[in-house]
Amino acid sequence: MNTRFAIRQIPLFAWLLTIGLAAGWLLPNHYPPWLAFHVNAWVALALMLIVLRGLYISKESIRLDSGGWVLLILALIPLAQYSIGLLPLLSDVVLRSLYLFGAAAAYILARHWNRHEYLGAANHVFSAMAIAAALSVGLATYQWLGFAKDMGLMDIWVLPFAEGTRPYANMGQPNQLASLFLCGLLGVAWAWNKRQLSGAMAVCLAAWILWGVALTESRTAMLTLALGMITLFLFGKRYLRKSEITTLTLLFCFYIFCLFGKSYLAKLVGLDLPLSIVERSAGELRISLWKMSLDASLQSPWGGFGWGRSNAGYFLVYEKYRTTFGGTYFEQSHNLILDLALWVGWPFAIFFVGLGCLWIFRRVRGAKTIEAAILLMAIAVLIIHAMLEFPLHYGYFLWPFFVLAGSVSVVGDKDASTGMEIPRGAAALFIMGLLIALIIIVIDYLKVEESFSELRFQIARIGRDHNEALPETMILRDWPEAIALARKTPRPGMSEEEIRHWEALLMYNTSPLALRKVIGANRLNGKEAQAQAWANRACWLLPQAVCMGLIDEWASPAESASSVKQPVP
Question: Domain ranges in the chain?
Fold first, then answer.
């Protein structure tokens, strides 16, 4: 099949859905209070439309395999933790469960799609990632050249960028961008294998994307590419010809040349240079963070602190690590296994990680085609990244990850044609339910975003007569309360339940201002030890001179009413 014919075989609507998904990774909207909201919402909508297309073209009932069951059980964990009081905020619980139900749906329906069109769902995701990666290299180069320093009319489409830092395009973070690039690189390989790209075009696109990877100077990406080359030399002959292995080796050499040669190019054009990979490795905090995470997980080893609440454990042990971290605040461990242990306890973490390893082992053992190898490499890219940071905490990587996992799940599965059957209509209703929830969340969040911006202007004393009315929301009900907390004043006579609720809101939206209110609530209600503990923890977010004075600020009701300049949350 020639390239032109292969492209013509793809329906126009499928291309539109793919381009729509790619646009999600190109959005420049990263604003507080939820920096990833707009990208997450866009990617969620695009993937829902894609899987609904898969349901439409496949007329068979859906078979639920063991992987699908495990993901559905995972999605129920936040609800179970809420029922026993481990997670205190219902809205937060619902949102976390919706994230996980979305992951389960992505896996189950991508697997189902294989019964009608083999790896059809993966086609959409890989093509979208390749498109987004190729365009993002252009944005990253634009930033690297210093054109995004002064915000002009065209720069509403690209995030602002300061010279001397690493490019991040519209992903907002260099390592996130690097993972998109690596997945896009595999998307190019996928399109070449499907004869949608000629060999020359595939090599040119791969070189362009590798230039982008070099711009990010991501150590995670460098490690992943090095492991990929080792894998290529060990197992590449199973899938590729010698000339193709040589081409991939030359592309890797091109990446190394760009990585270490771009500094000379930068000097030629007069650019400020970011810290090199070696310089950034000095003073690395990741090992210390893992030590603190392990220590925190052992404070509640059997049940954890609740899904997504790693910081609840960190605050318990922060005093031991204050000199190490100073004012560098973390809410995740930068390691998926440690995060799971912090969320659900070590027994469940080991159980779920073991199931994941078994699933991967079966897929690797059964991989006989280049398509399966590319899918497994994409999964490996995000898993390696998840062992060093937290890409799967973001929906825009989590849901595509499980689309790819669902697509490759039939590889090495002896029981691919068995499993509990679910009517196609029931699955469609489930997706429609998620779509309705997404629409409600989008409407809720736009109200929250406006109200939060008003709060920031008020605290910064910009403007007058600020609207203090709280947004009316249906699902995101915790955000209005978090905004209200910023305007409340601690007082004597607060109930234990009210103080605990303030602390829960602090964990939900951790900020210096919320910490100040929690310290005051405890101090003014006779909880000296708790107030002092929170004051000590405040040093994680504030300079030493400021945080040590917070406990004295609430020494009496008269002092608590004094005028104090409040930091922006």
Answer: 441-560
